[in-house]
């Protein structure tokens, strides 16, 4: 079957890692007899440079007219001093809103061959396997007003944390659905000792939990959660939390896997195409050097195959190839703890591609 995939490479290493992910998708298409049609769109800083907007209308149309979207990353120092409507990040927020991508799934999985790449001890990170379910289209990122202002004649600023209850319901429900197919535990992370929004979040979680008697619900304050993630990460199965807490906790959690360059994500839409993206950014410090780790982007492409196209076997083929490549000792610089030779981005992609082609056909 023919599938239309919109690719939004964006800025910095976004371009380098999506190129790798597309190559892997092409390999899978060839190997398993699928037809993927790739269409490209502009987003972020490069879109600002070329069109004056971080998310041109044309890009929105292209995305809506596709079966799934693969995104790299946006942003960079070149655009850091732009007014807020002309920042690359605004393009990313807008595409999330336009496509109603209310849930962002960020799985954290342990690779035994990377146990030396994490600064944490092996006994702590061994067998870690949980998913952060991050609310993606509400909260502080989207609340209005969000502006510079004056108060009592003095310079001031306001950002707004706004949620409607149904926005909480749908994300928490998704977390329970996921947990009911996993180890049956939901940890809802909030700041209910301080924030009214968190108190409604907690209440909502309690209400939804009644419909899932087989799933255990636990509440955890976000400051404690940040600590527990490092102290005892195996206690988590599904972590559900609001937009900004989820952003921060997932970068922290990436350390458990060895590198930010390992973590994929899937953004789930209420109705349209889903979007798949690594959780990392455009990494200006290593951009243009062909040394970024492409695995987060490649694993994001694998989730696309599984969640948008129902191609479970093909998704597993990619994940297995990544595992085998790491087992064989291949490393990009970010996960190369103690290793003499490191691979470039393109070399890593070639290794993973080779591993897919070498696999016995799984059907
Ligand atoms: P970042 O995620 O870009 O980088 C943080 C650190 O991790 C850097 O040292 C970087 O070199 C390293 N890193 C990230 N991905 C890597 C990979 N695949 N391989 C190897 N190393 C990797 O975060 P930052 O530096 O805080 O932000 C840079 C820019 O990216 C900012 O403009 C920010 O707004 C943007 N950003 C975009 C997204 C996105 O598009 N989804 C996500 C986060 C940050
Ligand atoms: C992410 C990023 C974005 C976010 C930024 C670039 C807007 O950090 O995807 O995690 O905070 O959502
Ligand atoms: Mn982030």
UniProtKB/TrEMBL annotation:
Pfam families per the UniProt record, alphabetical: Iso_dh (PF00180)
Catalytic activity: (2R,3S)-3-isopropylmalate + NAD(+) = 4-methyl-2-oxopentanoate + CO2 + NADH
EC number: 1.1.1.85
UniProt cofactor note: Binds 1 Mg(2+) or Mn(2+) ion per subunit.
Main location class: cytoplasm
Residues engaged in binding Mg(2+): 223, 247, 251
Record site feature (Important for catalysis), residues: 141, 191
Chain positions recorded as NAD(+) binding sites: 76-89, 281-293
A GO BP entry: L-leucine biosynthetic process
Keyword set includes Cell membrane: no
Molecular functions per Gene Ontology: 3-isopropylmalate dehydrogenase activity; magnesium ion binding; NAD binding
Gene3D superfamilies for the chain: Isopropylmalate Dehydrogenase
Cofactor(s) required, per the database record: Mg(2+); Mn(2+)
Pathway participation: Amino-acid biosynthesis; L-leucine biosynthesis; L-leucine from 3-methyl-2-oxobutanoate: step 3/4
Ranges for domain Isopropylmalate dehydrogenase-like: 4-352
UniProt keyword annotations, A-Z: Amino-acid biosynthesis, Branched-chain amino acid biosynthesis, Cytoplasm, Leucine biosynthesis, Magnesium, Manganese, Metal-binding, NAD, Oxidoreductase
Binding site for substrate: 96, 106, 134, 223
Cellular localization per UniProt: Cytoplasm
One annotated Gene Ontology cellular component of this protein: cytosol
Function: Catalyzes the oxidation of 3-carboxy-2-hydroxy-4-methylpentanoate (3-isopropylmalate) to 3-carboxy-4-methyl-2-oxopentanoate. The product decarboxylates to 4-methyl-2 oxopentanoate.
HAMAP family with a match to the protein in the record: LeuB_type1
Quaternary structure annotation from Swiss-Prot or TrEMBL: Homodimer.
Assigned protein family: Belongs to the isocitrate and isopropylmalate dehydrogenases family. LeuB type 1 subfamily.
Protein name in UniProt: 3-isopropylmalate dehydrogenase
Originating organism: Peribacillus cavernae
Lineage: Bacteria, Bacillati, Bacillota, Bacilli, Bacillales
